[in-house]
## 1
Amino acid sequence: MARINNVIAKIGAAAEHRRNEAYIEALVGLHARAPAPIRGRAEWERDLPRSRLPRPADPAEYLARAEELGREAAENMRTPLSCYLLPFFGPRRLRRLREREAARVSGLARLLGGDPAAVAAAVQAAFARLALPFGSGARAAFIAGDVFAVEIDLPGKGMIPKERSSLTKTGRISYRNWPERDRNETYARVVAALVLLFGAAALDAAPSLDAVIVSGVVPAVDPRTGRDATECLISARLLRRALADLRLDRTDPLAALENFEHRLDPGRGAVLRPVTPLGQEPAEAPEVSSAGRGNRRRAAAAARGSRAPAPPEAAFERELAADALRLAVACARSDGRFDAAEIAAIGRMLEDRFAPAPLERARLDLLREELAGAPIDVGRSAQRLRERLAPLERQLLVEGILTALQAKGAPADAELRLLEDIAARLDVPSVAVKDMQRRAAPSAPAPDENRARWLAALELPSDVKLARALIERASARILDTYAEERFAALGSEFQAMARQRRDGAVEAQRGLLGLLPPEERGGEPTPPPEDSTGPRRDNPDLDAIFGP
């Protein structure tokens, strides 16, 4: 019996030791859970209708045509068989499927085009799907223009056990203190693995990103104020191409991090010290005397733990807001008028795009007064903005100027011509400008939109050749399918749906007949036959070709 107990004890000790080692290996190998391979633009484009892809694959064009691509995908979607087998519920189900398809394709196009909201949402969703042995929050956003940054909450060093297990010669488990330096080095590997994991997940979820800055922070206390703060322990700029070439499951995380620009400062005993996150470097301090070197060192030390993005005033100091103001004023006064409504709208646009501080806002007001009558070098201002702003920021600036021009009503032709010239100087695609003008136009339905709605109400294809007989037969078919007596035994919801379909068919019939030439329009619409119980063909297209 004692021998059996001894064998059982050895088996239990071996299993416990394996669990302890597996825990350490799982922590150090977190980067092996990264998506492999990391999906690029080509992999994401496979989920879009290939016949409707812009060629060449221009991100700006994707962004400008997002909604259009969604509508085209919905119109070209194959109708499921279930929509034909369910005559009562088929149209509603088809409408829902088309709305879902339009939203899916439009979202993919925005993601491929680099829309900030779409990119941030996709990255956050990817982070939520990561399975970690501990809780770790993460935040993702664009900083300093087109730089995409991720900030993750690092776990404390307490996750690393203070003791390390081993098996004795007799098969018993033994625990010994783990040297502090070894614990610190293991913790550094865990931190590096987390940075690689979150960076790979972000690049996999956002195909428009070529690089991402990942920084890890831990809670801290500001010694000057005693308030809660954070300290950055690691920061790395991960490039898509370089990260995709790595076999993360076979690499040491610290060694793999050497392939990228990174900041990791192990001090005495391998203890990680705070560093300044990449992309958030403090402004260069001016030269001071030897008496002021201590203050400069203390300021630099305080800046190492700072993680706040560059203040909006920095953009203004680079004259970005001033150049944007010059372009907006040039457009506003190109028609010979420059009233108070346009001035106020331009001010709101600048505040939305650059958010200047109160003192800088006063400077903008003075500059706006000077520009009201002074000559403006449009080409020079546009060149500076093209060099310093990201493509999406330039596109948003053009859209903001267009919105400001509409403060006094519809923009004049001279204003629109100058705006298109400025957009060309800023390398904003003309298709994006036309899309802005289309979205900014009054929302009254156009004849083409009415025609599409009427055809959908009669379940006719969009490219059908209209004829009076075809329209009347399609309307009669809808009225027959959704006749009141067919829904008398059903609930009020179905009766209301049927009544809506009948009313839509009557409206569509009158509207489509109004689009016909006067010689084909005839008199009043032919009423539906009283006896609608007989057999009826459900293919009006063939009827239009071969006759009834």
## 2
Amino acid sequence: MSFEPLYPEPVPSPDAIVDVLVAAGIRYVFGLSGGHTGRIFGALEKRQDAIRTVLVREESLGAIMAETVGRMTGVPGVLLGQGPWILGNGLVGTIEAHLSASPLLLMTDFTDTPPFSLHGPYQSGTGDYGGWDARQAFRGVAKEVFTADEPNPAVIATQLAIKHALAGQPGPVAVIYGARALDGLAGGGALPRLYAAAPFVDLPKPGLPDLSGAITALKQSRRPLVVAGNGVRLAGAEAALARFAERWGAAVVTSPAGKGVFDEASPLSAGTYGGYGNPTAHRAVGEADLIVAAGTRLSASDTVGADPALIDPSRQTLIQIEIEPRNLSWTMPVRHPLQGDAAAILAALAEAAPAERGEAGWLSPQAERTVAFPASTGDAGLHAPEIIAAMQATLPADSIFTCDAGENRIFMMHYFRARGVGRFSQPAGAGPMGYAIPSAIAQKLLNPETPVVAVAGDGGFSMTMNGLLTAIEAAAPIIAVVMNNHALGWSQHSRGPFATSFAAFDYAAIARGMGCAGRKVRDADELTAALREAAESTGRDGRPFVIDVETSMDFSFAALAYANTRKPH
């Protein structure tokens, strides 16, 4: 690797900034041109062979798409656009990235007008008299905020922003460019000197901690269990987790955020645990004598308020694997805290398993994982479990699913069985509505040959259905299944009907007006036919397909609460 200074001859700073993105392996930039960032979009136009730019209709869509790319690939997703709207409209995806530890790069500008900063220029974010303070505003939601007012510092700020988006526990990092930073030449003899991006962005993996205590504890355990969280996904540790479970005969449950990192068809899987998990998972966690918390903080929402019937350090041995030191023994005392890369640690622990531990595991084979619920009757619409069952029975087994916040997410958490790994994403960090559609578009860009299905309620779907325009323009033919109960189901079932009801819109017809395909369905037979048609149509015609499912309000998410499911039915 050469450490000679870059650009002996000066180059436009936006070109040098895009070079940094390419060198860091960034494949997608999402955004909406505005302010001074138009110069970066101009530089991106020349590099579409290496990095794809996706124009979105509103910044919140781009933020969620960028967050999904970061979450699923481990390479920062990028949101590019004008300062106020990257912060304001993009806040949904940024907060989700912050709370879900997804690497995200926010590239924006001050919209400054030198030398008139003290005259309150239009939209200026420099924090000077009459303007808003972009630095301070972004610091409230980002790991780090870097600013640059000159060309060379703009290149360096981009390198450092990528580095810190990936360092330790990943997350969102903002870099804010001033007008002069994007309207000048970088390199040449200017100071500070510019160097290749690799030393800044290629971060070494931490070494293995001392595993001897954890290995001894595992050998002494009779009922080991892994709680797999989102950190397994971020570390790319899914294969290492599967190997560990097989070698030690360990049961595996996932936190809500970790759903999809372990194949729930495996006989070692007990499914998803926590507030709206399933009885088998609850029972398995409570019966385990040793728990490996891999990539999870064991937060209050995951452990149902630290209920000792689930996890109790006084009767169970806890091993925690975490990249971020502050997360170790944060929520409860851990006997064996292991700081480091989850993939490396799980792989090393797997290799340390005695040969005789390679058993089928201690769980009863494929025990019942859901609360039984009868099929819907009458004209009130289908029940959510029926819709989920139809999707799993009809759509290809390798389909990728995204879901929204709200009641539909709880139903998916409880009833949906993640097949394979990497085929399920959801907003488990911040829980924003409107997540499913843009996340599905990003998933389709990453996996163009795989069916991608967005599952949303009518409330969440209506927030981001304009994303279907982007799906058409970006050639990302997703399937959207709308559980249309004409209400905010969560709110109505928790506090009543006031300000929770919607008019009866036909979202399939609206989708057809956008140029998508769509069907309105009211019973199980129509749903099955529509799902088959959607799978064929998206592959054949390359257009998104929206299925608006008349959904009953007769069944509440409250029936799936931990208090009602902790004992097997």
## 3
Amino acid sequence: MLGRKKDQLKFTDIDTLQTWEQKPIVPKDSIYYGLSQANEIFKDELFADAYSFSGRPSIPPSRLIKVLLLQFYDKVSDREAENRARYDLRWKMALGISIAESGFNYSALSRFRARLLLHKKERIAFEEILEAAIAKGLLPGNCAKQIMDSTYVLGAGALQDTYTLIRMAIRKLLKTTSKRLNLTMLLPKPLNLDYQSRTKPKINWEDPAERNKLLNELCQDALQIIETADKLKLTKQEQELRDILATVAIQDIEQQKDGTVKMKQGVAKDRIISASDPEMRHGRKSSSRRFDGYKTHTAMETDNNFITEIEVTPGNIHDSEAAAALVDEQPAERKPDTVLCDMAYGTGQNREEMEKRRVELICPVPTDLGRNGCFPKSAFTIDLEAQTCQCPAGKIAAENIYDKKTNRLKVFAFSQEQCQNCPLLNQCTKSKKGRRTITVNQYERHLQKARAFQQNEEFKKEYPERCKIENKQAEMVHHGLRQARYIGKAKVYLQSLLIGAIVNFKRYWKLVTEQNHLKSDTCGGITNITKAPLPLAT
């Protein structure tokens, strides 16, 4: 059959656009409808101190914050967000704008993000959604039990080798200072290289001698620029660029006796890896998974699985180092009593920090593997009160070695006499001295307590709940967390908060619809959209 024609709705038939063949255009359980009903969550008044009371009217910030959330929900760019607001009925519904309204220019979004960061408003959407959930009874005021974990975020800055790092750092400093003063003209002698161009110097990169010559020229130029800059009064931005140059100029090199330099073997600690984003770092999520960028650390409550806190660190920061901040940055009423984590958080130092905060940490102790197939430390019975250590053969350590400065017990040492005739010697040590020593960690008390606890039924019952956060982080990655959209830690933090906010709002609206027994019927039509609030002035 050729088919049949029937009357078609026209785009201008506003009154009949409530449904399309008896199906809702925007169902009530959709995120778009949910955002259209969230005017009490996202209010213009929340942003009032970030705007002036004179000048041209701006786009309402309550609308722009919804746009930022929709961006990550639908995974679209600023330009595509402009198009969605102009042509997509779902976005128009969510934003509370009429069909005839053109929306906004995409450049407004970058300005709005900058305004949020400038006025420290980056957490508004995240916090207001949590407050709305508390008000609805969906989130307990005291999120007693929480789960913590991290995931990596690939940096948006270009990964650069040592030559490019130094050259680009010089170029950025010279370019920035040229707006206020001509630093090049103040140098005592001409630079070896031209820093106007972004292209790499044309040398034979296969020739070690040419590479080393270039490295020395770059370092000479860097040193000359730094010495000259230090004699001037620099702005905050210029000083930051000077400091970056000083770091990248020495982090990968070592000086020779004749005054020349050569490339250093190994990787410098906390190495800057990009001149375009000097805050991103080499990171390791596991022994086999490396990345360049940042880590987003997340805390999630276990009742209704809302994200309660987010922190961002450079990629080289260990997971356990961010745990205390995830607790401290939460309001007093949301601070957890119990935290579930994976083994990465099970360090003695982190356990001590959690104990100071009266937080019970439920996570495994890092696996204790003996060297060269010998008995691990856990095979020895350590009594910290009596300050004794018993080996698997039943012998007590002959000597206790203390730190001279702190008088803290450092090592249990068994004597050669104790070890040389022991039938378990080959299973205990491969040391040439023929004796075993046991190092006592300064957090040994916390580790002992944790080892004992993880054998209890309570631990075995509670710990499996930790895996809930894996799904939540996968959801955040789905909405664009894996790749940084912006340059710099502050902007990556904003991105993480916005993604956390939209993930929380999805959960919030799902629970609200369930709570109110809403059905997926017509949303009321575009004509019923309330008029947008009057814009604030800029």
